Amino acid sequence: MRTKIVAGNWKMNKxxxxxxxxxxxxxxxxxxxxxxxxxxxxFVNLQAAxxxxxxxxxxxxxxxxxxxxxGAYTGExxxxxxxxxxxxxxxxxxxxxxxxxxxxxxLLAKKVKTAIEKDMKIIFCFGEELEDRKSGNHFALVESxxxxxxxxxxxxxxxxxxxxYEPVWAIGTGETxxxxxxxxxxxxxxxxxxxxxNSSIAEGVSILYGGSVKPANAxxxxxxxxxxxxxxxxxxxxxxxxxxxxxxx
Length: 249
Prior knowledge:
alpha/beta, 11 helices, four-stranded parallel β-sheet, 249 residues
């Protein structure tokens, strides 16, 4: 059975005190769930988050990492730095990293390779822009993003991969892919992996939906057979909203 996951990407939000307050509230309100619950605060608050959650089942992830072990990469964070804090989960390929910071498939393949070598769990993000959806190119684009960044991996690396499909046109816009659209793409992703590897890997990988998931729509989206949870943005910054989404899975 695939792991159900609800992950909160906090992006560039919450200072140290606000981080501690939100985590305390989340811990107090966390419902009983079989799903893995993950939060990804900003880099500077990762250690505080680990400390605050040391007695909790909530996991802590980083929002990004560099592919190099060390060196002259001012402002960057390495896998070893994250691991030294006890953080072994990292989000890679988020649409905002791709769009604002020019991260392409080749760069992401290097980051993925490093994370796998360091035995980290990866939440790998990908998805189409609105123009790709309108032109009917969304399936081809998603296939290429997966192929270029992930399909050179050995089969056994896939037990460290979680996929997060995020239609870019539905991130922070209030727009959401319909549950049917989400299921259609998730099923396509699973078939693409099966064709490249095998059905066992395809059926075993958790695929999350990311794009304006809210308490009001979470249950319907999560009910689809190939949707294994969500990568949550804005709603993860409000404890009640985030815990209501967890209850929906």
